[in-house]
Design a protein that fits this description.
16 strands; 384 residues; 3 helices; Porin; mainly beta; 16-stranded antiparallel beta barrel; globular
Length: 384
C-alpha cells in the first residue's frame, strides 16, 4: 500500500511540474516576442526596414580616337551611385507610412519617397506625400535587381527623368488583373529644361513651386502572370519661367518573364508647348533649342542560361535603345544631330541569390553627328 502511495505522489509531482514548465515556456516565448517587437524585428512588428543600393565602374572610350576619353571628363570612374534605406510603419490595418532616404554619390542626401497611405480595399486606396510619378517602367521599379544593365536606359533619364518624384495625392487599386493609379502632383520647372532633355527640371519636393500642377494616369494589365502590358499619360504645366509651358508625356510599356526569358520594351513621347517663347526667354539659339517634342523607345531581351540547372541566375542580355531629345524643334532653329542617338547594350548579369546582382555591360553609342562614345561598365547591386 505504501509503495502505491509513493507512486501516486511521484506521478502527481511530475504532472504538476510538467504543467508548470509548459506555462513557463509559453510565458518565455511571449516575452521574447514582445522584446523582438520593441526592437522592430518581431512577427507582429509595425515598423519595417529595407533598402537597395548600387556601386558602379564606368570607362568611356572615344570612337574617333580609339582610346580612353580625356581625364577632363572624369573617366574612368568609380561611384557609390546609390544607397537607399527604406522605412515603413503600420499605424493600423489601414493607415501606413512609406519612406525612402537616398544617399547618392556618397555625399548627397535626398528624400525619395515619403507617403501616408490609406488602404480601403484592393480596388480603392489613397496616398499623399512625396511619391514616384507613375510613368514608364524604371521610374516605379528602379532597384538594380529589376533591370539588366549597369545603368538605367538614357530615355529613363533625359525624357522620363528617373528617379522622378514630386509631392501630390494619388488614388490607386487593382481588380481582375487590372491595376490603376490616378495622381495630382506638382509640375517640373521649365527653367531646367535643355536641348538634352528635362531631367534638370525635377523639383524633388524641395520647396517646390506649386503654381503649376499635373495629372497622371496609369493602367497596367496582367496577362495571366506571364507579362504586364501598360500605358501612362502625364498632363501638366512646367513653371519656373514667365512663359506658360505645357508639358505632356505618354508611354506604352511591356514587361515579361517566362521560362528563363525576360523581355521588356517601352515607347514614349514628350510634348512641350510655347517652346518658341521659352527658348527666347532662355536666350537659346541655333542648335541649342529646347524641342517641342522628344521621343524614344527601347527593347531588351535576356535569357538565364542556368534556368534549368541552378537557382543561381546567369543572364546574357541585349538592349536596343533609340531616342531623340530634339525630335521636333521650332521654326528658326536647327536640330543638333548629336541628340538623335542609338545605344546598343550587350551585357551579362549574375545573381547568386535573387536580391544580389553583379553586372557587366558594353554600350555601343552612336548618333547622327557621329560623335558617340562607347563605354565599359561594371556594377553591383542589392535590395532587401
Amino acid at each position: 500500500m505504501s509503495k502505491l502511495l509513493i507512486l501516486c505522489l511521484f506521478l502527481s509531482f511530475f504532472t504538476v511540474n510538467a504543467a508548470t514548465l509548459e506555462e513557463l515556456n509559453e510565458k518565455f516565448e511571449a516575452l521574447s516576442e514582445e522584446m523582438l517587437e520593441l526592437k522592430g524585428q518581431g512577427p507582429r512588428s509595425k515598423t519595417h526596414f529595407g533598402g537597395y543600393g548600387e556601386f558602379v565602374y564606368i570607362n568611356k572610350r572615344s570612337k574617333t580616337e580609339k582610346n580612353v576619353v580625356s581625364a577632363n571628363t572624369n573617366n574612368p570612374k568609380l561611384d557609390a551611385q546609390r544607397f537607399i534605406l527604406y522605412i515603413g510603419h503600420d499605424f493600423s490595418e489601414r493607415w501606413k507610412l512609406t519612406g525612402e532616404i537616398e544617399v547618392e554619390h556618397a555625399d548627397e542626401i535626398f528624400l525619395e519617397q515619403g507617403t501616408l497611405d490609406y488602404h480601403y480595399s484592393n480596388a480603392l486606396n489613397f496616398q499623399a506625400g512625396v511619391m514616384l510619378i507613375p510613368v514608364g517602367i524604371i521610374n516605379l521599379y528602379h532597384e538594380p535587381t529589376t533591370f539588366h544593365s549597369v545603368n538605367r536606359p538614357d530615355i529613363d533619364s533625359k525624357i522620363i527623368p528617373t528617379t522622378w518624384r514630386e509631392l501630390g495625392v494619388s488614388f490607386f487599386g487593382e481588380a481582375k488583373g487590372l491595376t490603376y493609379r490616378l495622381s495630382l502632383v506638382d509640375g517640373l520647372k521649365a527653367s531646367g529644361f535643355s536641348s538634352d532633355g528635362v531631367r534638370s527640371g525635377r523639383q524633388k519636393a524641395s520647396q517646390a513651386e506649386a503654381r503649376d500642377l499635373a495629372w497622371v494616369a496609369r493602367l497596367d494589365y496582367d496577362l495571366g502572370g506571364l507579362a504586364t502590358l501598360g500605358a501612362s499619360a502625364y498632363f501638366g504645366k512646367a513653371g519656373g519661367v514667365a512663359t506658360d509651358v505645357k508639358h505632356d508625356v505618354y508611354d506604352l510599356h511591356f514587361d515579361s518573364k517566362f521560362k528563363g526569358f525576360s523581355l521588356r520594351g517601352m515607347y514614349t513621347v514628350l510634348k512641350l508647348g510655347n517652346t518658341d517663347k521659352l527658348n527666347l526667354e532662355k536666350s537659346l539659339t541655333g542648335t541649342n533649342s529646347i524641342a517641342s517634342q522628344m521621343s524614344g523607345y527601347y527593347a531588351s531581351l535576356g535569357y538565364n542560361v542556368l534556368h534549368y540547372i541552378s537557382d543561381i541566375k546567369l543572364t546574357p542580355f541585349i538592349r536596343y535603345e533609340n531616342y531623340n531629345t530634339q525630335d521636333k524643334v521650332g521654326a528658326g532653329f536647327t536640330k543638333d544631330l548629336s541628340k538623335e542617338r542609338t545605344n546598343i547594350t550587350y551585357g551579362l548579369n549574375l545573381k547568386p541569390v535573387d536580391n544580389i546582382v553583379f553586372k557587366l555591360d558594353y554600350i555601343s553609342a552612336k548618333n547622327k553627328a557621329k560623335t558617340g562614345v562607347d563605354s565599359w561598365n561594371l556594377g553591383m547591386g542589392w535590395n532587401f
